[in-house]
Amino acid sequence: MCDKEALHESGLSSAPQGSRRRRVWELSHTCHCPLIGVGLPLGVLRKLVEKVTGGQLMHDDYEVHVGAVGDCLLRTPVAEAVQKELERRYAVCVQRFRAARTTAEVGAMWNAAVAGGDVAGAFWAGLSHPRCSAELEEKMCRDIHMVQHQAGACARADINQFNTLATGHARLERELSRLQQRCQALAQDKAEQAERHEQLLMQARAVAIGKDTEIHALRTQLAQLEAAVPELESRKRLANRVAQLEAREQALRAQLAELKAARPAPPPVKEEAAPATVPAPVEAPVRLVNRSVLCVGGRNGAVPGYRSLVERAGGQFAHHDGGLEDSSSQLDASLAAADLVICQTGCISHAAYWRVKDHCKRTGKRCVFIDNPSVSSLARGLNEAGSALAVQS
Predict the structure, then answer these.
(1) Using CB atoms within 10 A as the burial measure, which of 158, 310, 357, 362 is most buried?
(2) pTM, entire model
(3) What string of H, E and C letters represents the secondary structure of 99-144?
C-alpha cells in the first residue's frame, strides 16, 4: 500500500487518476527540466527563487535551474512557488485544455499547439491535465526536446542575422550622424535666412505704417479743405461740364473750318444781292406711318427740323446726341424702341458709334449712316430707309 502511495506521489503512475489536475511535484522527474526551462524565463525563475529563499542568489543561471528542478521532486516552497507562477502565467491555456475529456483529445490539442509554435503554455496545461497518460507525457517530452533543438538552431540563425543587422545598424548610424550634421548646417542657414526675412518684414511693416499714417493725414487735410470750400462737388461737376463743352466747341470749330476749306468760293455777283430766300421744304419720305425713327447725333439747333421732317412722314421722332450731353446708358433703350436708326457720324462719339453699329448688326435693324449733319442729308437718308422699309413690307 505504501509503495502505491509513493508511486502516486512521485508521478510515475501510468494511468491518470480522478479529475484533479496534477501538481508540479506529482509529475515525473523527466518533465521538470523541460517544464521549468521552457515555461519560466531565467529572470523570472531567479526572482522567484530569491523571493522564496529570502536573499540574493550568488549562483549562475544553470545552478539556479538545476536547483529548482531538484526542489520540484517534492512539495517544497520552491515547488509551490513554481506551481503558482505556472498557473498564473498560463491560465488561458489551462482553461482551454479543460475542454479535453480524453487522453486523445489532450494529445490532439498538444499537437495543434506544437504546429502553431505556442508550446510553453500548452506543455504545462497538457502535463497537468488529469487525462495525461504516461505515454502522452513521454511523447510531449520528446516533442519539447525537438522543439528546443529547433529553437536553438533558430537562435543561432537569429544571432547571425543579428550580427549582420548590427553591422548594418552601425553603418546606418554613421550615415545618420553625417546627415544630422548636414541637417543642422541647413537648419542654421535657414534660421539665418528667416532672421533676415523677419528684419525685412519688420522694415516693410514700418514703411507701410508710415504710409498709412501719411494717407490718414492727407485724408484729414482733404476733408478739412472740402469743408472749407462749400459746394465743391457742384463746382467739380460744372468744371467737367465746361471742359466737355470746350472740347465740343473745338470739334465743331475744326469741322466748320474743314467745311469752309472744302467749299468752293462763290462767283462774284455784279448785281445787288437779292434777299435770302427761304429754302424749299424737303420732300418727306414715305411709308413711315406708325414707325419710330431714332436720330443719333446731329446739331442741337437742327433737332426741330429733324422732328418736323419725320413727323410730316407720319413717323415718331426720337433723338439722342450720341453721348455728348445725354447719358450713354439711355442709348440702348432708345435703340431697342426704334424701328429705324439714322446715325449722323459727324457729331457722335466713338463709343456711341460702335454701340449703334453693334446693336443694329445683332438685331438686323435698319440703320442709315449720314456724314453731313444737315436736314437735307437726313431727308435723303429717310428716303433711302423708307424705300427699304417699303420693300420689306
Answers:
(1) 310
(2) 0.37
(3) CCCCHHHHHHHHHHHHHHCCCHHHHHHHHCCCCCCHHHHHHHHHHH
